Amino acid sequence: MSHIYKIVEVVGSSTVSSDDAIRNAIVTASATLNHLGWYEVVEHRGHIEDGEIAHFQVTVRIGFRLQES
């Protein structure tokens, strides 16, 4: 049996950490997508205020298996 996968790209954000931004992206995607299987970080950036990191933004590709009909 073969499977078909789809990839979506989402941006997670957090004021805490890049790991938290990734988790936020995955948790939010899992609320509307089923069969999530893997993720890949494709971009990592942030916002700086007063010489400190104020906000983390992480672009994540999430792969999920399409349901067979």
Account of the 3D structure:
The protein is α+β, with helices and mostly antiparallel strands. Helix content is 19%, strand content 55%. The protein is built from 1 helix and 3 strands; from the N terminus they run βαββ. It has a 3-stranded antiparallel beta sheet with strand order 1-3-2. A hairpin with a 2-residue loop joins strand 2 and strand 3 (52-65). The model has no long low-confidence stretch (mean pLDDT 95).
Strand content bin: over 45%
Q: Helix-strand pattern, N to C?
A: EHEE
Average per-residue pLDDT, rounded, comes to 95
Q: What is Rg?
A: 14 Å
Question: What is the number of beta strands?
Answer: 3
Number of separate helices: 1
Task: Write a concise keyword list for the protein shown above.
alpha+beta; 69 residues; 3-stranded antiparallel beta sheet; elongated; 1 helix
Question: What is shown here, in short?
Answer:
With 69 residues, this protein is an alpha+beta fold. It contains 1 helix and 3 strands.
Topology of this structure?
Blueprint (H helix, E strand, L loop, with lengths): L4 E10 L3 H13 L5 E14 L2 E14 L4
Antiparallel strand pairs: 1-3, 2-3
